[in-house]
Amino acid sequence: MNVSAWVWGATLVALIAVLAVDLLIIGRRPHEPSMKEAGGWVAFYVGLAVIFGIGVWITAGGQAAGEFYTGWLTEYSLSVDNLFVFVIIMARFAVPRHLQQKVLLIGIVLALVMRGIFIAAGAALITQFSWVFYIFGAFLVYTAITLVKGEDDDEEFKENILIRWAKRALPLSSEFGDGKFRTVSATGKRLFTPMLIVMIAIGTTDLIFALDSIPAIFGITKEPYLVFTANVFALMGLRQLFFLLGGLLERLVYLNIGLAVVLAFIGVKLVLEALHTNSLSFINDGHGFHWAPEIPIWLSLLVILGTLAIATVASLAKTSRDKKRELLSK
């Protein structure tokens, strides 16, 4: 794709405008959205992504559109996994329900900023050093293995060193108040609210997930424009999806296994591509391995979509069986 500066500019303006509307809604009336409201917003954002993909198809062809949809689906599934951790964090710090929208929105903005930085860095690395795909691929395979081995590790949130330092060094209030970062105590002392600690936890979580998501999307497309837009559309509507899914998040017990398969698949795809275009002098004298197969985008989309569908169906089936057994045992 040859994306001009004005297309980048127009895309950024449009996406910032959509995000600004979301910010204004939360800023005007922090609340817990109804199922109807949350469902409407999720449908709106998914519809925007579908329409955007059609636009890519018309202007840049089916290959680029396929890369966008595959990247968006991958990032969306990783973002849902991110929601699990957000749920745990908000439960751990007892964030009031009416303030959870604000926490989610700030978390999504932080994720966008961090992913934007990683996308720029990743694009620069790939342009200069094609061998970076070896590292990206190995990292994704390693991440997949850790997901399978530690699938239940997310049940308890572990405070990192930054959170522990903030709780020890900063004067903290025990009340969230109206959701601001600072408050004034009855004695007139200025204190930080628990909202600041929650934001530190959300921000560090976003950083960790960005480290996973960016190599994954570059395994699908090397076009920075598609990488960026797929990430933005995957994060938009995530706040409303949190309230729409509700207890369903806890029922997706096999999501980590599905994501592990997806990440491992993309990791292997990256390594095969690195072998095919190899330029490292100490590997095959700097020549590519032409026997290394190139996985087409349609196959990537089919594998990712099929894996996530199987993981979702299997999860819901398992939790339904467990619930029936629990009722029968009473």
Q: What key attributes describe this structure?
A:
single chain; mainly alpha; two-stranded antiparallel sheet; 12 helices; 330 residues; 2% strand
Helix content: over 70%
Main β-sheet, spatial strand arrangement: 1-2
Strand portion, in percent?
under 5%
The poorly predicted ranges are: none
Q: So what's the overall shape? A: globular
The total beta strand count reads 2
Give the radius of gyration.
Answer: 21 Å
Counting H and I runs of at least 4 residues, what is the number of helices?
12
Give the quaternary arrangement of the chains.
Answer: single chain
How would you sum up the major sheet? 2 strands, antiparallel
Counting helices, strands and paired strands, the structural category is mainly alpha
Distance, first to last CA = 61 Å
The average pLDDT is 81
